[in-house]
Amino acid sequence: MLVLNNIEVMYNDVVLVLKGLSLQAQEGQIVALLGSNGAGKSTALKAISGLLQPENGEVSDGNITFLGKSLIQRDAADIVREGVFLVMEGRRVFEHLTVEENLRAGAYTRRGNAAQDVDLVYEYFPRLRERRTQTAGFLSGDGQQMLAIGRALMAHPRLMLLDEPSLGLAPLLVEEIFRIIKRINQEQGTTILRVEQNARLALDVADYVYIMESGRIVLDGSPKDLQNNADVRECYLGLNEVGKPKSYREVKHYKRRKCWLS
Ligand SMILES: Nc1ncnc2c1ncn2[C@@H]1O[C@H](COP(=O)(O)OP(=O)(O)O)[C@@H](O)[C@H]1O
Ligand SMILES: [Mg+2]
């Protein structure tokens, strides 16, 4: 459904951030893209969504196709109309609008009925219904993240791109959000490409996982493959060969030599 083939992204005509990144998402899948801070994850999502231009970035090589059509050199609004919706890092909501106004403001690309769509969002996020008249800026971090995903849902995307939806949230709330993302995937048939730093979480809720470092993919496979991969176990999950947690010291030492993620 989505294919990135050997893409390069450059900022300001000089800084090469993606260096031949290739990945795919099949229709109906949840795909996780993992990488440490600065690996180029957000850049990859912006490249897909046509959002590099405002940052003086461009895809300088390779191609990106969605359902067989190229997304290169296309307008961001046009890409949304194709059915690709990015939920940016850091819960971008209209802080001065209420929860419900935020949802309705997201409905400009909708294909359905706004009132029904708002109800659909409330079905997935009952807490937003309770706070529908509250100003979005006063919601907690997880409330804002739910609202940001709710706004995406209003657009009925075929492919939802989520940039670190778990960032800064307590573990229980992360679990709740991931459960809801999984439900949206299953019930709405929305394909999901999710970017994360946290390996353990990403492996739990994904059909396929890519690990990137410094602008390219260094490893990919099913969560099961990666869970059984010795390097991933060591670096990422902090486990030794018999599945026991390693001491912080050992992990750190290992990371310096070999690991992709911090
Ligand atoms: N607008 C920009 N201009 C120049 N460099 C940028 C810009 N945005 C990001 N970068 C650089 O690109 C690299 C990857 O950034 P980013 O895609 O945000 O990584 P991640 O999301 O994986 O943390 C970083 O080194 C960052 O400094
Ligand atoms: Mg990022």
Biggest sheet: strand arrangement: 6-7-8-3-9-10
The fold-level CATH name of the largest domain is: Rossmann fold
Quick check: average pLDDT? 88
Helix/strand order: EEEHEEHEHHHHEHEHEEHHH
How many beta-strand elements? 10
From the alpha carbons, calculate the radius of gyration and give it in angstroms. Answer: 19 Å
- Tell me which CATH architecture of the largest domain applies here: 3-Layer(aba) Sandwich
- Strand-pairing-aware structural class: alpha/beta
The residue fraction in helices comes out at 25-40%
Explain what the structure shows:
- The protein is of the alpha/beta class and 262 residues long.
- It folds into two domains: 2-228, P-loop containing nucleotide triphosphate hydrolases (Rossmann fold, 3-Layer(aba) Sandwich); 229-262, no CATH class.
- The protein is 38% helix and 25% strand.
- The protein contains eleven helices and ten strands.
- It has helices at residues 41-49, 76-81, 99-105, 114-124, 126-130, 141-154, 171-188, 199-204, 223-228, 230-235, 248-258; strands spanning 2-11, 15-25, 30-34, 57-66, 69-70, 84-87, 159-163, 191-196, 208-213, 216-221.
- The strands form two sheets. Strands 6-7-8-3-9-10 form a six-stranded mixed β-sheet, sandwiched between helices. A four-stranded antiparallel β-sheet has the order 2-1-4-5, covered by helices on one side.
- α7 (171-188) links the parallel β7 (159-163) and β8 (191-196).
- α3 packs parallel to α6 and α4 (114-124) packs antiparallel against α6 (141-154).
- The longest helix has 18 residues, at 171-188.
- The protein is globular, with a radius of gyration of 19 Å.
- Mean pLDDT is 88; it is low at 253-257.
- Bound molecules: adenosine-5'-diphosphate and magnesium ion.
- Adenosine-5'-diphosphate (ADP) binds next to β2 and α1.
- The site of magnesium ion has 4 residues, from α1.
